[in-house]
Amino acid sequence: MQVFNEAPSGLQVAPHEPRILAAGYQIGVREVSFGQVHDKPSLMLALMSGLAITGTFGHNWDALYDVLTDPERLPDRLALLLCSYTQFRSHHPHLSLDLETALLDAQREAAAQGRQLWLLTEEADADPDAW
C-alpha cells in the first residue's frame, strides 16, 4: 500500500524513495535527522533545522505544535521525514514520547483544518528491498 494514497495516520514507515513519491503527489517534504540528537535542546535544534524555522521559536512542545499547525508556515500537504528515528526512540524513550505526543496532536489538528501531515520514519541503514 502506498502511504500517500491514504490519509495520514500516526507514525508510519517511510516508503522507498519517499521524496520522489511525495513529489508525484504534490506533497512537500521536510526532513528531521535524529542522528545527533541526545537531549531536548539538540532535538529542538534538529527540528528547527529540518522545518526551516527562522525567527523566534520557543524550543518547547507547544511551539513545535504551533509551527506544525500554522497554515502560513507549512504547506497544506506535508510529509515530515523522521530520519534515524527508531534508534533515537530506543535511546530516548521519554523524550520520544513527548515528541510523539506533540507530533500526533499536530497531525490531528492539521486534519481538522483540512490539511495533511504525514509522519514518516526512515532509517539510514535500512535495506530498501525490505520496504
Structure description:
Residues 29-120 form the Barstar (barnase inhibitor) domain. It is a single chain. With 131 residues, this protein is α/β, with parallel strands linked by helices. It has a single domain, classed as Barnase, Chain D (2-Layer Sandwich). Helix content is 42%, strand content 18%. It is built from five helices and four strands. The protein has helices at residues 18-24, 40-51, 61-69, 85-91, 93-112, and strands at residues 11-13, 28-33, 77-83, 116-122. The protein has a four-stranded parallel beta sheet with strand order 1-4-3-2, sandwiched between helices. The longest helix has 20 residues, at 93-112. Residues 126-131 have low confidence and may be disordered.
